[in-house]
Amino acid sequence: MPLGSRPSEKHWVKVTCDEECTLSVELKRHQPGTKKPEPRAYAPRFAKVKDEGWWLVVGEADTGELMALKRVGFFRGMQTANISLFTPETPGRHIYTVYIISDCYLGLDQQYDFGIDAVDSSSCTPQGTSR
Asked: Integer distance in angstroms from the first to the last C-alpha of the chain?
């Protein structure tokens, strides 16, 4: 999905208002030509050895609200990071952004938008029942 665009209908996740949920983010390292990546960052002007790390930040850009924050250490290949956050208190559609931020390299930061369709708990129908 292009950045800055509104998520299409298939990209909206329906959730209940004001509940804790877990967002799973799959991180994949792509380093062709390197057999075994090292956890050490290239930082020649840093006083001591620096390990590479990442920050996962979830926020709502429209309101400027920070929803969740988590630090993820060095990983090889692929890793899934789970981050807990609360769904919006008000019903309606909200666009959240996941920021993946390097703590030592410039230019590697990424961001991805996803839509949350928050519904009031009274309007939800439990499975197996009908209205």
From this structure: 35
